[in-house]
Model the fold of this input.
Amino acid sequence: MEKRGLSGVVTTVLIILLVLVAIGVIWAAVRGPIQDVGKEINADCLKVDLEPVSCASTDGINYGVTWERGAGSGTVTDVKVIFRDMNGQSKVFEAGEGLGTLETRSGTYDVSALSGDLTFSVAAVVTPEGGEAKTCDEDFRPIDCTIA
Done:
């Protein structure tokens, strides 16, 4: 009786081909989302050093805040001023003006819609040359607001 079957070499080649096909299918599914994430990252945001400096109120409604920009490149065309209360509610204001390197700005904002203890942070709005305005991620160093 003659036995017929695949030789060891043929079996190995088939397994390698199946692995390559599987890698191709996985790459086709994963490539799109990976490329989209790359488009979301704005190099201009990485160059901007913007941080909150102070936040105080005398009446618990109107808060005077100050923020500053450190060294770094990139064009900051606006700044978003962000207040958060302990319930997770937030109120966002646009400062309405850009900020140059090593500049400091301040403003007063009515946050009567929020309650309790507040924190203050900022987010830069950058406009790359010939591009659209993009809001960078919020500064990860919020500061507590005080009532004097």
The helical segments are 8-40, 43-47. Strands lie at 50-57, 62-69, 76-85, 90-94, 104-110, 118-126, 134-135, 143-144, 146-147. The longest strand covers residues 76-85.
